[in-house]
């Protein structure tokens, strides 16, 4: 019998290395650079009789391919000409072209929609770009329904 009844928040953290550049940034971020990212995926679910709200092992198996694709990749907006000469070549596998400026804010939003498309009870996704900078997208922010399909399929 579970001692805790009701909804619980459970968090799983993922870490990866990734480069990007921001075309519309007025400063150094317009140049190619990289970060040691991490994401905190928070699930909200009711506890089961065994006391667990989310089976994190099964969730991790579902989520691992997303973060493996990001690890040691370089994310650019799809109209960025920086790597256009490599498009379609075997060495371009690590270049991720996305339909948005690859900011921390947009990355959090994209990951949220990607994870919800896997039918996991995600409450929020917080992406850390550095030890001092993070952006979070929550379920209450998900009124951006028109973006859901586009962002869930970008990777």
Give the rounded overall mean pLDDT: 85
What name does CATH use for the topology? Tetrahydropterin Synthase, Chain A
The portion of residues forming beta strands comes to 25-35%
Whole-angstrom Rg: 17 Å
Helicity, as a percent range: 10-25%
The topology string of helices and strands comes to EEHEEHEEH
Q: Briefly, what CATH class?
A: Alpha Beta
Net shape: elongated
Largest sheet: 6 strands, mixed
Strand order of the largest sheet: 4-3-1-2-5-6
Question: CATH homologous superfamily - what is it?
Answer: 6-pyruvoyl tetrahydropterin synthase/QueD
Number of strands: 6
Total helix count?
3
- Look at the helices and sheets and give the structural class: alpha/beta
Which structural traits does this protein have?
155 residues, alpha/beta, Tetrahydropterin Synthase, Chain A, 3 helices, 23% helix, 32% strand
Folded structure, characterized:
With 155 residues, the protein is of the alpha/beta class. It has one domain: Tetrahydropterin Synthase, Chain A (2-Layer Sandwich). It is 23% helix and 32% strand. The model has no long low-confidence stretch (mean pLDDT 85).
Q: How are the secondary structure elements laid out?
A:
Layout: E1 7-20, E2 33-46, H1 56-70, E3 73-77, E4 95-98, H2 104-116, E5 122-128, E6 134-138, H3 145-152
Parallel strand pairs: 1-3, 3-4
Antiparallel strand pairs: 1-2, 2-5, 5-6
